[in-house]
TrEMBL record:
<keyword id="KW-0137">Centromere</keyword>
<dbReference type="InterPro" id="IPR051190">
    <property type="entry name" value="Baculoviral_IAP"/>
</dbReference>
<keyword id="KW-0131">Cell cycle</keyword>
<keyword id="KW-0159">Chromosome partition</keyword>
<dbReference type="GO" id="GO:0000775">
    <property type="term" value="C:chromosome, centromeric region"/>
</dbReference>
<protein>
    <submittedName>
        <fullName>BI51B protein</fullName>
    </submittedName>
</protein>
<keyword id="KW-0479">Metal-binding</keyword>
<dbReference type="GO" id="GO:0007059">
    <property type="term" value="P:chromosome segregation"/>
</dbReference>
<comment type="similarity">
    <text>Belongs to the IAP family.</text>
</comment>
<dbReference type="InterPro" id="IPR001370">
    <property type="entry name" value="BIR_rpt"/>
</dbReference>
<dbReference type="GO" id="GO:0005819">
    <property type="term" value="C:spindle"/>
</dbReference>
<keyword id="KW-0498">Mitosis</keyword>
<dbReference type="Pfam" id="PF00653">
    <property type="entry name" value="BIR"/>
</dbReference>
<keyword id="KW-0132">Cell division</keyword>
<keyword id="KW-0862">Zinc</keyword>
<dbReference type="GO" id="GO:0046872">
    <property type="term" value="F:metal ion binding"/>
</dbReference>
């Protein structure tokens, strides 16, 4: 019997890549709004969005922080204004904790996961294979 690779670790790694602004910006290469609008690729990525289009919906963007998908973007739509996203409301509370504090904890968790994955990768390469 062999071990099946975990799909959740793949998702975690993909999620970790989108944490960086540059990676989110790279997803907007086919974004329909480029100039003379509020929802340029740069502004979308800065606001925390990832472009995740489909054939029938070329303008779907997912908020990296709250995972809400939005479609039907118009040139005058401002990606920084999404009143339901916790990222954009630092003083709102979730379970008695301010969003800003929650974000700090999420960022620390992200750093811890990066360290954990680095250690796991190092261990995988440093141990000899069984005969």
């Amino acid at each position: 019997m062999s071990e099946v690779p975990s799909r959740s670790s793949d998702k975690l790694l993909a999620y970790g890549r989108m944490y960086r602004l540059e990676r989110r910006l790279e997803t907007f290469k086919d974004w329909p709004f480029r100039e003379d609008c509020k929802c340029t690729p740069e502004r979308m990525a800065l606001a925390g969005f990832v472009h995740c289009p489909s054939e029938s919906e070329p303008d779907v963007a997912c908020c990296f922080f709250c995972l809400k998908e939005l479609e039907g973007w118009e040139p005058d739509d401002d990606p920084c204004f999404n009143s339901n996203c916790v990222k954009k409301q630092p003083n709102r509370k979730i379970g008695g904790q301010k969003i800003a504090q929650f974000r700090e904890e999420v960022e620390q968790t992200h750093r811890n996961l990066q360290t954990l994955f680095s250690i796991a990768q190092y261990k995988d390469h440093s141990q000899p294979s069984p005969p």
